């Protein structure tokens, strides 16, 4: 998880959506971190990092998911900063779930037409 001390000024999604709706957001940047990507937005003279409902920094697993989120907000253009990006897993692997999913899959069978 990203250290909140690195990003002291945060904004939660509902507030960010209001700023985008009011056309106040000047720019957005998707910044690479250890294990994922954070979204930073600039409006007025402020820059804020997107936070979760609980106040932690929201970390996206891939650039695709971060980009889709930014686009879903209504921000069609953003910058990408990969300076500090280090690939890693956000969540630890769950081999037990993978095995359970393998057991639930069924093979498709085609019925005889004759």
Structure description:
A 5-stranded mixed β-sheet has the order 1-4-3-2-5. The longest helix has 11 residues, at 63-73. Helix content is 26%, strand content 25%. The model has no long low-confidence stretch (mean pLDDT 84). It is elongated and about 70 Å long. A hairpin with a 2-residue loop joins β3 and β4. It has one domain. The chain is an alpha/beta fold and 114 residues long.
Overall number of structural domains: 1
Strand order of the largest sheet: 1-4-3-2-5
Overall pLDDT score: 84
Strand content: 25-35%
Radius of gyration computed on alpha carbons: 19 Å
Low-confidence stretches: none
Main pleated-sheet profile: 5 strands, mixed
Count of alpha and pi helical runs: 3
Order of SSEs, N→C? EHEEEHEH
Count of strand segments: 5
Report how far the terminal alpha carbons are from each other: 59 Å
* Helix content, binned percent: 25-40%
What form results from the Cα inertia axes? elongated
Give the helix/strand class: alpha/beta
